[in-house]
Amino acid sequence: MVWTEVALGIAVLVVLPFIAGSARTEAGNPKPVFSGSILTTGAVLTAALALSLYATAKASDALARREVPSAG
Fold first, then answer.
1. Which of 1, 18, 24, 67 could cysteine-pair with 32, CB 3.0–4.6 Å?
2. Using an 8 Å Cβ cutoff, are 20 and 32 in contact?
3. DSSP secondary structure, 12-59, as one string
4. CA separation for the pair 2, 15 (Å, rounded)
5. 4 neighbors 17 (Cβ within 8 angstroms)
6. pTM to 2 decimal places
7. Could you tell me if 43 and 17 are in contact, meaning their C-beta atoms sit under 8 angstroms apart?
8. 46 exposed, middle or buried (CB, 10 Å; 0-12, 13-18, 19+)?
9. Quick check: 5 pLDDT over 80?
10. What is the DSSP letter of 70?
């Protein structure tokens, strides 16, 4: 399941710079241009999110397995 989400994220990052919308037309540049900065920024943000989710899952697992000291 994780690999499916990774593949979908990569597909979105690759297609995103080529989307031609009304904002491009209004700006006078109707043809989409590949932008490496958009791809790089998206990849960095995706990697940061994945790392954060992984670290949170590991920390949660470690806390769940920890023994609780007795109160008495």
1. 18
2. yes
3. HHHHGGG---HHHHHTT--S----HHHHHHHHHHHHHHHHHHHHHHHH
4. 20
5. no
6. 0.52
7. no
8. middle
9. no
10. P
- Cβ(39)–Cβ(17) below 8 Å: yes
Structure tokens at 50: 């994945």
Question: Which two structure tokens, joined as six digits, stand for 5?
Answer: 């989400």
Side-chain-side CA neighbours of 39 within 13 Å: the count stands at: 11
Dist. CA 13–CA 5, nearest whole Å:
12
Instruction: For 19-71, write each residue's pLDDT tens digit.
Output: 666 666 667 766 666 778 877 887 888 888 888 888 998 999 998 888 878 76
